[in-house]
Amino acid sequence: MKFFCQYIPGTEEYALGFSELDQPIMFRSRAEAFAFCIDYSQGDEFDFIDVDDSNWQELFDSGAFDA
Q: Higher confidence at residue 67 or residue 45?
């Protein structure tokens, strides 16, 4: 499973998205978002991908955000 995490400057929160959600979940810290991923994956392997201005277009074009 792949989780995508992006810092939202105006809100000072982190948006976490993945294929099983229509809308991202907001967290106060990156660590909190990562802890959610650990719990949610229930021991299965997962990728935690930081999304920012340098890579979002490439991820979008590759279809990474498609459900």
A: 45
